């Protein structure tokens, strides 16, 4: 079996989805499973092309590319934000210049093609029909040919999670169908799941993709391979991935202790709209998995992929700390308002928690059914700050219940708690296309295309996207208390590298 993680996404940690599938396949007696992180390998191949440079910046970036890649893998540069920012900018400069040749906006975290919309099935089918037009084609034609010749896999699976991966995913599928027309192709991942869970979905890809899988792909994959599910837990297997090549100061171990969300009540949440069920591993199993995985991979950091780390798991991590520091998303809860609990959480290795606070207005939070109040949020931020745990706070602007007065309350809340907010993520609300709440609003197409994931809507308070962006750019981001918080955010890699910049990043 060949499992592929296509370009383009941040090349800083191993792809968890294909590693999870590999562990399950190995646990069912299928040892010959090849993992290809085409995202990492493909980007490194582009960085080796060295564009013709006519300007000083590009020439400097080309001369220093090997040094900068080495620096990104060295903990030392993460103690110097200015050097880190320059290294990231120089690497992005090369990718940007290489991409310009093919009308691409290309970076370590972005792939935008002026001629291809990942929201249009006709454009993606054209990518499959003309794979040689893809910028990664010179690399993947050689790499895929070599793997097929040496392993002769019975099936190929591709993990498609982001829109930025879609054009190259379909180019790779088109190439595979060209050289091995009888080889079954399976596609799964977050983006595929969102497409399939849309009630209006009709499959435009039946001619090139043999099987589309929504949600966890293990059971469908076992069935396709003719394997009986043994109903046992199998940890992910990262064997075969280039663990030392990722752009991070050591291996980041991605691990999912659950799928879905244990709260699952927030209005407009894609998890709720797509009716993704909540499944979780027992905390004891998680601890056992981490002990084994840390021994095998020697990670510099554990990244919990859960939508929200369960309180029971936090308690268990305190009792049996993993062998590496860790971070992930958490819900604001009474547990995190306890300074002693947060202190013990820090001792367990917790460097940073990502918190979806969304708004500093209680009415907006209530309308979203967040299940939190601002006093609890304030106490959580204070307790985490006192414990030395960094916070990556997510704010969401433009939900139907928010207008300019409520947005200004969010700014006031941030200013009041500026010392306890380490990093900020500011997002403008997008209405999921299959959200039940959309029925109460006047909606229209957000982007042209049959694969669009979001609907535009007429805001009840006239708080449109243009007005929101004006407020963010001219008022929120310019506040003296907010500026230093935003400046701390690692460019391009944002929350994936933020734990390495935590003020207290040692256990």
Outline of the structure:
The protein is built from 19 helices and 18 strands. It is globular, with a radius of gyration of 23 Å.
CATH fold-level label of the largest domain: pyruvate-formate lyase- activating enzyme
Query: Given the C-alpha coordinates, what overall shape results?
Result: globular
- For the record, the CATH class of the largest domain is Alpha Beta
- Please tally the helical runs, counting DSSP H or I stretches of 4 or more residues: 19
Could you describe the 3D structure shown?
There is one protein chain. With 507 residues, the protein is of the alpha/beta class. The protein folds into two domains: 174 residues, Rossmann fold; 250 residues, tm_1862 like domain (pyruvate-formate lyase- activating enzyme, Alpha-Beta Horseshoe), CATH 3.80.30. Helix content is 39%, strand content 15%. The chain is built from 19 helices and 18 strands. The strands form five sheets. The chain has a six-stranded parallel beta sheet. Strands 2-1-5-6-7 form a five-stranded parallel beta sheet, with helices on both faces. It has a three-stranded antiparallel beta sheet with strand order 16-18-17, with no helix packed on it. Helix 6 packs across helix 8, helix 12 crosses helix 13 and helix 14 crosses helix 16. The longest helix is centred in the first third of the chain and has 20 residues. The radius of gyration is 23 Å and the shape is globular. The mean pLDDT is 94.
């Amino acid at each position: 079996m060949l499992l592929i993680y296509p370009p383009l996404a941040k090349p800083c940690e191993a792809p968890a989805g294909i590693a999870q599938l590999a562990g399950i396949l190995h646990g069912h007696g299928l040892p010959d499973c090849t993992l290809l992180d085409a995202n990492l390998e493909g980007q490194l191949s582009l960085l080796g092309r060295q564009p013709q440079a006519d300007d000083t910046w590009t020439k400097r970036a080309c001369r220093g590319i090997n040094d900068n890649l080495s620096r990104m893998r060295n903990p030392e540069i993460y103690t110097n934000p200015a050097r880190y920012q320059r290294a990231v900018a120089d690497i992005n400069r090369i990718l940007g210049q290489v991409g310009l040749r093919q009308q691409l906006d290309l970076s370590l975290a972005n792939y935008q093609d002026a001629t291809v919309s990942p929201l249009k099935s006709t454009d993606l089918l054209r990518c499959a029909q003309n794979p040689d037009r893809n910028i990664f084609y010179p690399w993947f034609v050689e790499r895929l040919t070599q793997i097929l010749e040496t392993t002769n896999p019975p099936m190929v699976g591709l993990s498609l999670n982001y829109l930025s991966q879609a054009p190259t995913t379909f180019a790779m599928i088109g190439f595979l169908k060209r050289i091995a027309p009888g080889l079954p192709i399976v596609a799964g991942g977050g983006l595929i799941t969102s497409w399939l869970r849309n009630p209006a979905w009709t499959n435009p890809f039946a001619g090139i993709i043999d099987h589309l899988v929504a949600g966890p792909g293990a059971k469908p994959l076992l069935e396709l391979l003719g394997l009986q599910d043994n109903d046992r837990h199998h940890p992910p297997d990262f064997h075969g991935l280039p663990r030392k090549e990722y752009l991070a100061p050591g291996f980041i171990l991605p691990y999912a202790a659950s799928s879905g969300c244990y709260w699952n009540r927030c209005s407009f949440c894609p998890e709720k709209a797509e009716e993704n069920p909540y499944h979780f591993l027992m905390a004891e199993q998680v601890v056992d998995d981490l002990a084994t995985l840390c021994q095998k991979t020697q990670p510099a950091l554990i990244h919990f992929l859960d939508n929200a780390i369960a309180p029971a798991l936090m308690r268990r991590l305190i009792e049996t700390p993993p062998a590496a520091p860790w971070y992930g998303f958490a819900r604001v809860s009474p547990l995190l308002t306890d300074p002693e609990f947060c202190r013990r959480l820090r001792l367990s290795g917790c460097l940073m928690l990502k918190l979806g606070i969304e708004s500093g207005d209680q009415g907006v939070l209530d309308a979203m059914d967040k299940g939190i109040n601002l006093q609890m949020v304030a106490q959580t931020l204070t307790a985490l700050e006192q414990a030395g745990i960094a916070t990556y706070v997510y704010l969401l602007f433009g939900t139907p219940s928010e207008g300019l007065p409520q947005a200004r309350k969010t700014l006031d809340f941030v200013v009041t708690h500026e010392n306890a907010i380490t990093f900020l993520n500011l997002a403008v609300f997008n209405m999921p296309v299959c959200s039940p709440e959309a029925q109460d609003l006047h909606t229209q197409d957000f982007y042209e295309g049959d694969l669009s994931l979001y609907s535009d809507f007429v805001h009840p308070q006239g708080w449109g996207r243009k007005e929101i962006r004006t407020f963010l750019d001219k008022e929120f981001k310019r506040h003296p208390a907010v500026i230093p918080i935003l400046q701390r955010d690692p460019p391009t890699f944002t929350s994936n590298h933020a734990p390495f910049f935590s003020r207290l990043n040692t256990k």
